[in-house]
# Entry
Amino acid sequence: MLKRTMAVAIAMLFVMAAGSAAAQCTIGVYADAAGTQNVATGYRNGDTFHVYVVVFDEAALNAVSYGLEVPGLGTEIFIADDTVYGPTGNGINILTSNGSNVGLGECAPGFYGHPILVADYSLVYYTYQEGRTISVVANPDSDPNVPVVSDCTGVLHTCDFGPSLFSEHPIPAESHSFGEVKALYNND
# Structure
């Protein structure tokens, strides 16, 4: 009887350990939806550029909770109206005071290292500024420290922070003549 009880107890420990093991998950901000480029470049003041929030996960996902940190948001950088959520664009975003809770609109497979597109933000620089580092941060409404994802059975697990996106300063829209540039350095 003791052997059988021990065997059942050990089996339950293995089941509990397997069920509580967090899937490998990374969430980052990229300049492409494939999650390969982390520098946005080649645009002018007033042009729209894209920021993609992408998750790499070993599970199939249906929701992601995170924050997006954009230095200068609301003063020099603005979010355009055509932001879409989820891989097909049919997802929804429940914005909270601390970040986003995105329902992907489908059960998105994350196996084999394929990225899952969470959001495609359209951002616009309205003034000439230096480059910015745009990062994914925690949404404290879900977890104070890290982003959280929900698999397709409703099980929540945390995500590691992946790469940030460096957005280079935009090329000025107005061109300057060589004479104007030369005048800047004229000591007369």
Observations:
- DSSP finds two helices and 14 strands in the chain.
- Confidence is low (pLDDT under 50) at residues 1-22.
- The CA atoms of residues 45 and 174 lie 9 Å apart.
- The first strand starts at residue 25 and ends at 30.
